[in-house]
């Protein structure tokens, strides 16, 4: 048996206290002379025997109370049964210090297990100990002895980062092992930790996973602006996506703190279900925190957000505007995020006044306008949509040649419909569960070929919509002659999302712990520390530059405690050692504290008798 | 309480220093309460006059003396008796038990009083003190010097050793050849069967036996309350006792013990009197007188 806190064993000296009390009590008892004990003995022979026995039992129970209490406080452990004793091997130990290990006292448990593990090995064994989350590569690989290994384990601290076993193995290629190698990963086994873990990565050597039991929890999986992304009014909508990873229903509060806003919502999520909650925020508030109360991890479900919230967009429609104008402004009374102008010719337009230019069925533009348009598109926050008409002139062809090649008009017999849609693209995400897109009829379109950026295709694999940076190309016009989409309810949201995807391509200023700083020269961290370019975000929170605020969060996969499935790990040839089973009785603290209570109870019963 | 009566109170007596005085006061106090004098018609040989005392028979008043002196005197006659009394006083450790007045002290005053009474009646009186062995032995005699010797022995007696009552009684039975009255004063804390067997050996030798069993009231009531260590006065053995727990059981045991003695004494024709240390001495003296009157 070993003890984690052996100093508590000094408390066993206190066993003398009940003995001294016992002796003192005996001395303290009044001595009464009596003529003869003959009758006392006779009358209560049995009773006196019991009293004497009780006296001894009470003394024993008090001594046991002290013994069990201090043994319990010393945290007694049965020696590790992970491996056979004195195992001779070269042990490559990866101790998971990623964020998910901060669940409960998992990290300390992992360290305890690591101590036990190293103790199992023969003193002649060699070791290499490394944390899973590498802040930076710490020197070269070298084998160390048992004491050094224990010292390294002692010094390890948890981090906010995630980590990958594969990265560790690549960072530290093993050199000249004296004995067969045991690769041992001690951790909870989040999916992300086993990312890219290929079967047979380490050949035929042993790869053990000492599985630290972990609980599932509730997690914030995403925080995004509500569709449509552009904001017409002084408020915008933020959608918070939650997933309940636990096996129980979760009831709790979502709290959003941003600027002067403090918003709360009660929510209830069934086991293994997702849930979206919507918050309305003023357009001038871009940064804030979303918290889930009553969760197991400390920081995982504080989500720091820093959103790019665009205002109203100025749109110029050149060419036929019959349906597009109506699509952008369905009603004059409706407040929309667009300010729409219509012109017949691009040459008349002052492009500096617009954010979006839509060329709808224009045959061609002048060379001068082409240059102006390209200059316009080089500005941040601008975009252009080409709705190709029956004829496409040379300047437009040249303009689009870097993305597509226009082969000619196709007028199918009857109509054709959409064949393939990239639902993962932000334009179509919301339509995934709807069949509406599939039924749209197309009567004429330009046959085009594209190398990349196709997000929707017609039957026979003709590209319909191509999206590249801030330019969208549609193979047909949006009018009644070319398609019936203009009569469908889906027309408006599709148009909105198409425009939004061009203009709001700027990413939210949100990063994860562990991301490298590439675009900022100098950032001030949440604790006032400064980070420079090429550094890494090491903790969650808000980081600031002179004019920007950046939100940094823990990688969602780390916070959500979603472990890989056993069958997956088996398929990767990983030998799982479940500590819940293997070391279930290793820690005897509970047993001894129970025995302490039992000793108290026993004494109370004795006294009562 | 008449003034004389108080001398029968053991507590009062304990405050007095001289044993002979105690004995005299007890006896005189006792006798003053009797309606009939115990000394009547003992002998025809004139011994002395003494002043008439309440309780003396009026017919014994010497009217001639009254005529001369105008005072009541009665004639006393020299006793003629062959009674020999042996007082056997137990001085074992258990007799030392008692708070204000130990059993031994009570027994000593009783012994002295009986001796005085016997001496006054001109009976021959002797004494033996014992625990495991005979400590002192004074053969019976009616002479005053013998009486003084007896008082010395009584005064000297102190409790200490263990009890071996039955053995000692057997030894005494062999030692006392001439038949007489044997007065045993003891707490009888020994096996009743063996003690009775020893007492019967006196009976075989034609002795008359009078047994005074002396106990402290607390020995029968066991009126302790606190948890305490009780130690045996004879062998120093210790026991932790919770009196409340075992009181009833103890009382049953001692009652059975006394009842056993009482029954067996009756069966063996031995006069037996149970005395507590708060019992006035007249009870014991009455017993003695009754016994004596039967003997004469």
- The geometry of chain A reads as elongated
Strand content of chain A: 25-35%
What low-confidence regions of chain B span 5 or more consecutive residues with pLDDT below 50? 35-43
The name CATH uses for the topology of the largest domain in chain B is Rossmann fold
Largest interface: A-B, 22 and 34 residues
Which bin fits the share of residues in helices of chain A?
A: 10-25%
What's the architecture of the largest domain in chain B, going by CATH?
A: 3-Layer(aba) Sandwich
The first-to-last residue Cα distance of chain B is 32 Å
Total number of strands of chain B:
10
Q: Indicate the structural class of chain B.
A: alpha/beta
Largest sheet geometry of chain A? 8 strands, mixed
Provide the spatial order of strands within the biggest beta sheet of chain B: 5-4-3-6-7-10
Estimate the mean pLDDT confidence of chain B.
80
Distinctive features:
heterodimer; A: 609 residues; alpha/beta; Rossmann fold; Immunoglobulin-like; 4 domains; eight-stranded mixed beta sheet; five-stranded parallel beta sheet; 30 strands; 25% helix; elongated; B: 296 residues; 2 domains; six-stranded mixed beta sheet; two-stranded antiparallel ribbon; 43% helix; globular
Give a written overview of the molecule:
The complex is a heterodimer of chains A (609) and B (296). Chain A has 609 residues and is of the alpha/beta class. Chain A folds into 4 domains: 2-78 and 591-608, no CATH class; 90-214 and 565-583, 3-Layer(aba) Sandwich (Rossmann fold), CATH 3.40.50; 218-310 and 508-559, Immunoglobulin-like; 313-503, Rossmann fold. Chain A has 14 helices and 30 strands. An 8-stranded mixed sheet of chain A has the order 16-15-17-18-24-23-22-20, with helices on one face. In chain A, helix 3 packs antiparallel against helix 14 (589-608) and helix 4 (106-120) runs antiparallel to helix 5 (146-155). The two termini of chain A are 36 Å apart. The mean pLDDT of chain A is 83. Chain B is of the alpha/beta class and 296 residues long. Chain B folds into 2 domains: 40-78, no CATH class; 84-295, 3-Layer(aba) Sandwich (Rossmann fold). Helix content of chain B is 43%, strand content 21%. Chain B has 10 helices and 10 strands. Chain B has helices at residues 10-14, 19-32, 63-69, 103-120, 144-156, 165-175, 192-204, 217-221, 243-267, 281-295; strands at 46-51, 73-77, 84-90, 124-130, 134-141, 181-186, 208-215, 228-232, 238-241, 271-276. In chain B, strands 5-4-3-6-7-10 form a 6-stranded mixed sheet, with helices on both faces. In chain B, strands 1-2 form a two-stranded antiparallel sheet. In chain B, strands 8-9 form a two-stranded antiparallel sheet. In chain B, strand 8 and strand 9 form a beta hairpin. Chain B is globular and about 75 Å long. Chain B starts with 9 loop residues before the first helix and ends with a helix. In chain B, 41% of the residues are buried. The A-B interface holds A 26, 29-44, 47-48, 51-52, 55 and B 93-97, 103, 187, 189, 216, 219, 224, 226-234, 237-242, 245-246, 249-250, 252-254, 257.
